[in-house]
Q: What sequence folds into this?
């Protein structure tokens, strides 16, 4: 039985695209509905990269700009993501109040609620005082670098009047991005009802990294804030060559979570490699989970980068 004309065109076009990507040494993977590899991951079909060291816990996903998914493991059951929620918080704030590189933006006054929340409930907070005024850029730094929950909620109130109204914007943004397995219930991620998947978080990270201000902030290793001193980024992968950020998140129910982005070269062209590792060592301690997430993320990005280099595509970071 002959195929319809449209189907023949799709098959020929797909075969040509596959041949081109393979010739360039770029990974091409089976669609998400394809059979899994023995270890539970979707194997990249590429000469040189080989199987990736997927973590046994939780779920993970990796994508390469210009190539698409390099595979995922652990399924797509939504799990708590803790402070990874702050990536969407920053994305929504910058969408509504865009900044240019080097621009500080408007001054925002710290309200009594943000000051009262400092050190309350064992949350990750930043010591701010009511009446202080910080620029939008500075508050985004305090949101993403030391991961201040009180700053997340302050930005939500500044943007939308209430955290509840801001969460509605987060949900709308997730819907527009096609994050079908994600639910946001707060701006900080402290609520275990804020859940997502590795695949959805990779999708968000790709979008967020297009904003140059977000990209600058998540790549910053430390900042010095008058009255607070030097604040170090919580992301342990920033010392890895080529890594450009992005964000950590940890709690007892969420375990360790890590979003990372790394610049690699494919055929001499810089490409963004993005990965997510979620739900590592959940229900242990946040510190143990974060160590496991960092180890897993470092292993995945190193394997892809080295595999591209071995394939002759120049996969080393900058």
A:
């Amino acid at each position: 039985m002959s195929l319809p004309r449209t189907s023949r065109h799709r098959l020929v076009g797909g075969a040509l695209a596959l041949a081109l990507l393979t010739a360039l040494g770029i990974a091409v993977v089976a669609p998400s509905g394809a059979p899994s590899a023995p270890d539970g991951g979707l194997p990249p079909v590429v000469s040189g990269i080989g199987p990736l060291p997927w973590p046994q816990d939780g779920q993970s996903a990796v994508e390469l700009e210009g190539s698409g998914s390099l595979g995922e493991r652990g399924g797509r059951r939504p799990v708590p993501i803790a402070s990874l929620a702050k990536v969407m918080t920053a994305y929504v704030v910058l969408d509504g109040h865009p900044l240019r590189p080097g621009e500080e933006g408007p001054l925002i006054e710290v309200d009594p609620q943000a000051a009262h929340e400092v050190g309350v409930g064992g949350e990750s907070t930043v010591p701010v005082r009511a009446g202080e005024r910080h620029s939008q850029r500075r508050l985004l730094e305090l949101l993403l670098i030391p991961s201040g929950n009180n700053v997340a909620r302050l930005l939500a109130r500044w943007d939308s009047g209430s955290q509840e109204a801001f969460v509605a914007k987060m949900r709308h943004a997730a819907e527009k991005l096609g994050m079908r397995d994600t639910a946001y219930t707060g701006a900080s991620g402290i609520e275990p009802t804020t859940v997502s998947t590795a695949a959805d978080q990779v999708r968000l990270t790709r979008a967020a990294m297009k904003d140059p201000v977000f990209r600058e902030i998540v790549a910053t290793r430390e900042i010095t804030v008058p009255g607070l001193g030097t604040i170090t980024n919580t992301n342990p992968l920033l010392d890895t060559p080529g890594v450009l950020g992005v964000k950590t998140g940890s709690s007892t129910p969420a375990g360790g979570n890590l979003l990372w982005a790394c610049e690699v070269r494919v055929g001499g062209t810089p490409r963004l490699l993005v990965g997510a590792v979620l739900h590592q060592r959940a229900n242990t301690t946040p510190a143990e989970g974060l160590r496991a997430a960092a180890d897993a993320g470092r292993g995945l990005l190193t394997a892809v980068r080295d595999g591209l280099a071995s394939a002759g595509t120049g996969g080393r970071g900058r």
Remarks:
- Confidence is low (pLDDT under 50) at residues 1-47.
